[in-house]
Amino acid sequence: MEQLQQFFKDKTVKTLLDVGTGTGSFIAVLKETLNNTQFTGIDPDKASLEEAEKAHPDVLFMNMTGGQLHFPDSTFDAASISMAMHHLPDVQQTFNEMKRVVKPGGWLVVNELFSNNLNPAQEVHKSMHHFRSTIDRLNGVCHNETFTRAEILEQVEKAGLEICTAFNQEKDRVEPTPDETAERKEKLTEMLNQIKDKPEYHAMKKQIPEIENALKQHGFQMATRVVVIATVKKD
């Protein structure tokens, strides 16, 4: 991310905590931005952490939730959360914990997809994502629908953080092959089968051909993400 690199080019970040790190994909982005930084990644999902450790053997990964960080105050120069804000049961609790463990004057980086002002191909991605999030919620997993761009910025400011910059990031639209379309349909069906015994099953089953038709008509493009860089105010 060029804008991210430009922002941090004259700043020193010796330590960074990546919250909701998953398989460590955002750490890979941050490694291209930051030099000589010691990364720590935390996530509640052990299977994802195992994948992250394979991809980044030089990073310390820990099984932990963002709402309760087991680090002393002012431990890190910066903290980040990428594509995980909509998984949080309490956004403000996690942001407050991230603020606590970042040194005054340090930074928080939020990378999150948003739900408004999307083109038809991006709406296909959103519909798939919301299909999965509904299945997860029916199974007792915290997976909220995506925020609007304004709601993401509002949550950052509500946490008492000072926004330094915010910019959008997009990936290219792709035209799925028939095999890729069939594969996506199969994944949706696999998700649906997780709620076969629930009353919502039949209504959600009707969504699959609608998503399939939209995918064939419009193609697929990841929903736009906003990257917010905010600073932790000094006392």
UniProtKB/TrEMBL annotation:
InterPro entries: Methyltransf_11 (IPR013216), SAM-dependent_MTases_sf (IPR029063). Residues 17-110 form the Methyltransferase type domain. Keywords: Methyltransferase, Transferase. It holds the Pfam family Methyltransf_11. GO terms for biological process: methylation. The keyword Methyltransferase applies. It comes from the Bacteria. GO terms for molecular function: S-adenosylmethionine-dependent methyltransferase activity. This is Methylase.
